[in-house]
UniProtKB/TrEMBL annotation:
Protein name per Swiss-Prot or TrEMBL: DNA-binding protein
The species this protein was found in: Candidatus Roizmanbacteria bacterium RIFCSPHIGHO2_01_FULL_39_12b
Coiled coil ranges: none
Source taxonomy: Bacteria, Candidatus Roizmaniibacteriota
Entry's Gene Ontology cellular component terms: cytosol
Gene Ontology terms, MF aspect: DNA binding; structural constituent of chromatin
Keywords attached to this entry: DNA condensation, DNA-binding
Record-level GO BP terms: chromosome condensation
Amino acid sequence: MTKADLVAQVAKKANLTNKAAKDAVSAVFGTISEALKRGEKVVVTGFGTFLVRKRASRKGRNPQTGAEIQIPATVTPGFTAGKSLKRLTK
C-alpha cells in the first residue's frame, strides 16, 4: 500500500475529501517524524511504538579490499508492533 492508497482509504472510511485526508495523513506522519527528531518515543496504543534506536560503532571490512574499517555510531528510527497488531497479522 502506498501513501496515495492510504489517503484514499482514509478519505473513504472517514467520509473526507481526498485533500482533507491527505492533510490528515501528512499531519500524522509529520508529527511522528518531529517527535523522533527530538528523540521522543511515540506510543499508539493498540498499534505500536515508534522510537529512535542507537547503533554503536563497530568494526567492519571493505568487501573489495578486505581492509578493516571503523563503522561510526548512528541513530535510526524504529517501530515495534503492539499486541493487537501482532495478533491481526497471525
